[in-house]
Amino acid sequence: MTASATDDRDAGLAAQYEAYPYPERNPQDETRRLFIGSPSHLREVDYWVFGAQRPRSKPMRVLVAGCGTGDGAIMLATQLARADRPAEVVCLDRSTKALSIAQARAETRKLDNIRFVEGSLNELDALELGLFDYIDCCGVLHHLPNPAAALQTLERHLTPGGGMGLMVYAPFGRTGVYMLQDALEKLAPLTQSPEERLDVARRVMRTLPATAWLRQNGNFGDHLSGGDAGLYDLLLNPRDRAYTITDFLALLDQAGLEPAALMEPARYDPTLFLPDPRLRARLATLPWQEQAAIAEDLAGNMATHVAYVVRKHAGLTKPDPLDPNAVPIMREIPGAELAKQMTPDNMLPFPFGTLVVPIPLPPQARGILPLIDGERTVGELTAILATRGVNAEKFRHVWQESFHILERLNRVLLRSPA
Fold first, then answer.
1. Helix or strand run (H / E) with residue 136
2. Methyltransferase domain location, by residue (predicted)?
3. Any idea what the CATH number is for the domain that residue 92 is in?
């Protein structure tokens, strides 16, 4: 691609987010709801990036690199404020309009732990913002002219022991998108204004053939119901690259990074939908990277890859869930609610996007889950279960199995120390 073509795409991208900041948000809605997701959920960051070892009282510097209208930044800043955690969340974006919406959302919530910087991720060094314990870069890298260079820049701005939360698009779950993008770029070239291009896209969508692959794809609720900004971002984005999990891992490696966790870890385990013993035996001989690639190939519905990453060979030690002083904590859904979702045969129907997989749990998990309140230790859970006829050895076995399963589903984690 020539430099002029790259510049045209970059100009088109800048024009897009001024005309249609994404995602489309009304700051007044902050009075009634908080968007929750991954990456950058505080409990996830504490666990997957810092191994539940970083004291909650230790100040945290956060960079949201490409904050858009602010979903991730507002979520994390709100969670930090609610937990009375000392922190500064720096929101960086080059779109004046998108930043103004994010700032208005923060003002509605009266957040004083967040600040906004207008600028490009590609010019991060020149902004002299310092180092950060955690960096969020969600839905940004795949729109940049040189994602590898940008990721390397972010890596240089991590403190020792720091990490990132990343999201990039994945190809198979976006089946149909790139076909339509190609057609629309011919019908509505980048030289047209964003308003003209959007008008063309609307007209095409009104009579899109029933055989178009996009019609068969159920992964785009937010984009297709997210107003003009959602439609534009899905079908008219001037630069939009998707990564298989293999490509994504190679990108991380190039930047000196490795995944602490893919979200959810179990999503990348093909044994969940390959019960055949011979197939499982074959899978067991393969490296985890190949297993993850097989899971993506077979599932076919991964539209994004979300990961928490750290520097290669960082030596992050996962906490011991059997430690009597460890404190299990529900990621979001209360334990009692999760227990209610279990079927009579002790299966937990779990949605990996549009794919629902039954996950077997020990029967005793139904009684343990409601006891997890983010305060009780594993030792205290052991004592409670002893009064119900589950001795310490039995509890240890059941808890180890339950935690292993629910951790990989990103539903039960461990709390960081005070």
1. strand 132-138
2. 58-164
3. 3.40.50.150
